[in-house]
Each structure stands twice: as C-alpha cells, then as structure tokens.
Write a structure and sequence with these properties.
The protein is an alpha/beta fold. The protein has a single domain, classed as HUPs (Rossmann fold, 3-Layer(aba) Sandwich). The chain has eleven helices and nine strands. Helix 1 crosses helix 11 and helix 6 packs across helix 7. The chain is globular and about 60 Å long.
C-alpha cells in the first residue's frame, strides 16, 4: 500500500519588491511549485510591499516580467502590476494588521521602544535587542516608537515537512521583536502571519535563512486570537549563497534574473544553473523538468 500523501490547500510565492528577483528567489519558487504539484496545492502570489522605503515600482514590475520569462505560473493573487496595486497591495489590508496589533495591546503584550538601530548596535554585539525600553513604560501612543513584543522563554513548535514537528525556542535575535515600526506601519513578521492566516495558507516554503522568522511567526501567532497558523507545515530549503558550485558562486553579485538576461542568458540557461545547484543528474531546461526531478529526488 502506498503511503498516504498529505494534501495541502495553498502555498505561496512571497517576494519582497526591494530588489530585482535573483536566483535565490527563483530556486524558492521552483521548490514551491514542485511541492505544490506533489501535494495538489494552489499557489498564491503575495507581494510583501509594506516596507515602502525599500519598495520600487520597477521591482514590482520585475516580479511579473521574470515569472513570465521563466514561465512559472501561479493560481491566485494579482496577474499584473495594475491588479496588484488596485487589489492586492498589503496597503489594502492595514485594517486586519491593526486589529491584530490592538489585540496584542489589549493583552498587554507590547511595549514602546525609542531605540535606534545604531543605539542597539552600540550596546549589543550580536544585534540582539537588550531590552532597553522593556521597563521604561513609554506610552504606546508616543510617536516615532517601535512597538515590540514582550517575549518569554516558552518553547515553540511547528509542523515540518521533513521531520513532522520542529521544536525550538525563540532565537536571541528575535527576543522582543518589532511588530509595529516607527512609521506606524506593521512590521514584516506581523503582516506575514496575518496574511498567511487570512489567505488560508497551509504550506510555507522558504529558505533556511528564514528559520528564525518561522519561529518568531509561530510564537506571535500563539498570542493572537484563535487562528489556524499552527496548521501550517513548513519547508526550509538550502540556500544558493551556501553553494560550493563554482558557476553559481562566480555569478555572485550578478544573480538577478534581469542581470543574467542582460548577459545573454536564456530561460534554459537559468534552469540549467538551478538544476545543477540541486544536483539533478538530467539537464533541467524548464519548470516541468525541475518539478519532475525534484519530486523524484524528494521521493
Ligand atoms: Zn528600546
């Protein structure tokens, strides 16, 4: 009897438009696509554009251009830049982020912090927030303050695609992490959690560099009113920057897909590079090749 295959409803591509899409983003999308195919999930394109100081229209446009160039489809979310700005920008969901922040405030889980990045860097060797403002009782209404979460040492667990359950604690660099920024806009961790809950995402595929974020987000979700975040299964994949592959490390600094195209690389060249990185034996020339090889390799 074949082992019963878990089915997931929805996974997502969630790029931040603060630069042109690079090979690392595409690798993540290809693994997401492969797992969506394997588990019969739909894919949502969610562009995380809350960090307005870093977002550029050209980077948003690049997401559509690059997905189109590499022929990577998705099922839900904006089909183009216009639909994105009219319906799908995170700016349209500020009300739901605000509601979550209010509930944390009511539970007295927040404190205001006026430290600058520089001040924190000066007193902390590992960028860990030392809790400077924790007991200063700065009014949350005070302007130009971050809202930080009062965190404690309780353990965190989430569902893992590889190991079933992943158990850990909040890492040092996430102690008292920011949930609302000095601009009054919600921080990435909070917006991401609320979006995943509201869209009904149940499979998150991301690089290993975001493991700390997954822990922070799981922790945060456990403090919010009853929600489905703990039903989400996570897959953290290996990163290109850790690659020993010469072809890839040589292209370091020039790994944006736009940059590679300007150098004359074709769609197939880019798939070949990524197939090579994954260690697939057969040449990978398109999405279907990648998905087939990935699903076979992953068993
Ligand atoms: Zn502070």
């Amino acid at each position: 009897m074949p082992k019963t295959q878990a089915t997931y409803q929805l996974t997502r591509f969630a790029p931040t438009p603060s630069g042109y899409l690079h090979l690392g983003n595409i690798l993540s999308f290809l693994i997401t696509s492969s797992l969506a195919k394997k588990h019969h999930s739909k894919i949502l394109l969610r562009i995380d554009d809350l960090d307005q100081s870093r977002v550029r229209q050209a980077y948003i446009e690049d997401i559509f251009i690059t997905l189109d160039f590499l022929e990577i489809p998705w099922d839900l979310g904006p089909k183009n830049q216009k639909e994105f700005s009219q319906e799908f920008s995170q700016i349209h969901r500020l009300e739901s982020y605000k509601k979550a922040l209010e509930s944390l405030k009511e539970k007295q889980l927040l404190f205001a912090c006026e430290c600058s990045r520089k001040q924190i860097a000066n007193i902390s060797t590992n960028a860990q927030y030392p809790g400077t403002c924790l007991n200063r009782k700065i009014d949350l209404k005070e302007e130009n303050t971050n809202w930080r979460l009062i965190t404690n040492g309780h353990s965190i667990q989430f569902k893992s695609l590889e190991s079933g359950v992943y158990n850990s604690f909040l890492p040092d660099n996430m102690q008292h992490f920011v949930v609302r920024k000095k601009t009054s806009l919600p921080a990435y961790q909070l917006a991401s959690v609320i979006d995943d809950i509201n869209f009904g995402v149940d499979l998150i595929v991301r690089g290993q560099d975001l493991l700390d974020s997954s822990l922070a987000q799981s922790y945060l979700s456990s403090l919010l009113p009853s929600n489905s975040f703990s039903d989400i299964t996570f897959k953290h994949h290996q990163l290109i920057m850790h690659s020993k592959n010469k072809k890839l490390s040589k292209s370091k600094g020039a790994t944006s897909i736009q940059g590679l195209r300007k150098m004359g690389k074709s769609k197939a060249d880019i798939y070949l590079l990524l197939g090579d990185f994954m260690g697939f034996k057969e040449p990978i020339l398109c999405l279907e090749d990648f998905e087939k090889a990935y699903i076979e390799k992953a068993g």
